[in-house]
Amino acid sequence: xxxxxxxxxxxxxxxxxxxxxxxxxxxxxxxxxxxxxxxxxxxxxxxxxxxxxxxxxxxxxxxxxxxxxxxxxxxxxxxxxxxxxxxxxxxxxxxxxxxxxxxxxxxxxxxxxxxxxxxxxxxxxxxxxxxxxxxxxxxxxxxxxxxxxxxxxxxxxxxxxxxxxxxxxxxxxxxxxxxxxxxxxxxxxxxxxxxxxxxxxxxxxxxxxxxxxxxxxxxxxxxxxxxxxxxxxxxxxxxxxxxxxxxxxxxxxxxxxxxxx
Length: 261
What we know:
The chain crosses the membrane at residues 33-55, 67-89, 101-120, 166-184, 204-226. By secondary structure, the protein is mainly α. It contains eleven helices and no strands. Residues 243-250 and 257-261 have low confidence and may be disordered.
């Protein structure tokens, strides 16, 4: 049918895909991973600071952490990227030159840190408070008990959520194109969009979407694996191997009561 051929040519034009594939792989994929990884690392550092401030006994630390989290979680990601990318453009030019690449990473880092901070806070607060009290009873300071005992356990519990957040950052990295990246700095979406505009065909965008799926789908299954592993534990119940492991049934010994004569 004509409409089937038209759809195939619009979305699955292999000539257009082959033409843009090297640029998607060599430029788009590399920049997407660099932006996402850098934003995640900075977001984890800032998020841990925000989480520790958010659970601090001091109101002077809790309140700024709460305000910071509410702002960067409440604003749309694209609005935050545009405000930071355009608002600090002149300052960035003096430091990094004309490239808006660093500002895109900074904006994504601030957004990610607000979500990661809440993830860390929930993980830390899920640790039984008795452990902190036991550490204090042993003479450890509050900061040392949190750093050595409570925080490591909280991080372990939120690893699946952190991987989920990285997946979200990978997808949000496509919004950085609004800042007008240089040709060598364009990520997957911008490379696919430019090729689609030049060819008048959507197949390059479809291929860019496939690249995103190659990144996100395995990570999604990895999250499910970690989540299942942490829920069920490493040890699984096994049946007894021999009769020695089984509990023998105790046969009651009858007792005969004699009568006095």
